[in-house]
Input
Amino acid sequence: MLSFFKEYKGFAIVFAIISAIIISIIYNILKVDPPLPIYQPTMVNADLVDSSIQDQRKYHTIADFKLINQNGDTITQDNYKDKIYVADFFFTTCATICPIMTANMVDVQEAIKNDDDVMLLSHSVTPEIDTVAQLKRYALKKGVIDSKWNLVTGDKKQIYELARKSYLAVKTTGDGGPFDMVHTENFMLIDKKRQIRGFYDGTKKEDIDRLLKDIERLKKEND
Output
């Protein structure tokens, strides 16, 4: 019996190696990334969420909106219908995190500029200052592609309601005067059903890399 095992020892080793390779190949073929989370108000820092929805655990989506972009065009949810998009909140005169965020959003724009499924949306938290003309100057300076990226201004109450009740991204209610803005560095990834699928630090390159990977994951989810 011992001699039998010795005789086939080499075969057994080769068979084990081939089996391991086959199993590894099958695993990699079948391996599927889990779907991205669908964020609800209860999953986010309560400071960023309006008190009226802090206990909401399901069915959260981005509300309808009507704002004006850098070209004076009216932008609504219909401009983003059946699109994946990245949203953020900023203001053009910000000298701290906004320039970094904008530079990183420019990198995102470069990565998705030929992708018809993906767009960008940046909301000004100082609409009194960020007029259409101001946004246009900013857009030209930063290299914004109008067909891909809307910088929007409009009614301040609506913008802050969107920030706190839809995007879960701003720390104040916007009712303390023109300079009360306390927005986050977050970029939000929104799917075609207007659900939040990811939060990313817009000042960190590693988070931008993760965002771009998650956009591809989300596209596969929609295939």
Summary: Confidence is low (pLDDT under 50) at residues 27-31. Helices lie at 2-7, 9-30, 98-112, 132-142, 156-166, 205-222.
